[in-house]
Amino acid sequence: MAEYFEELGWGEYVEGEHPNHLLHMARILVDYGVVSAMETGEWPWLPPPAAKETVKNIPEVVVDNDSTSCPICLKLFQKGEKVKELPCRHGFHAECILTWLAKTNSCPFCRYELPTDNKSYEMFRKAKKRAEQRKEDLETLHNSMYR
Question: pTM here?
Answer without folding.
Answer: 0.63
